[in-house]
Amino acid sequence: xxxxHRAMMVxxxxxxxxxxxxxxxxxxxxxxxxxxxxxxxxVSEHGPQQGPVEADVAHHGHVSLWGGRLAVRLSTGNHxxxxxxxxxxxxxxxxPPAAGQRLPAGCLWGGDRVVYCQSGPLRADxxxxxxxxxxxxxxxxxxxxxxxxxxxxxxxxxxxPDNDKHHVLVPATGxxxxx
Length: 179
What we know:
Immunoglobulin-like
């Protein structure tokens, strides 16, 4: 429970940076940086690991668009070698979803086109953390693009940063576009 509370504080800090425009102008400064809690720590069966850790956060899933509905399945995993306390993914949409929609537990709005989702603990080569978002769009767009990136991984050195960044173009065909 303490890890989830800490994770939600980090997600809240990330959203706050986007909403208030703090930082370098990119919208996000490394959430947790400067806070000191959880940064540079992995988790093992013996408790938190101190110091720098290596891990490989990866996002995969699918997205579909049809009739003003946007369905997203986001799975976040860790290919190791160290366990992580969690990771935060940023999903940015080219078209804004309709306002006032509820998100699953662990996700929050970071603006009118951005959603942050915080995974639970990620074991090295363990099971993924998964989120399913069912969003209404403003109007009925012919296509939407979605950018997925990791904005926080507990300060771990990512051994393969290319698999946690995706750009997906989603035509309104109802087909699943896999990333």
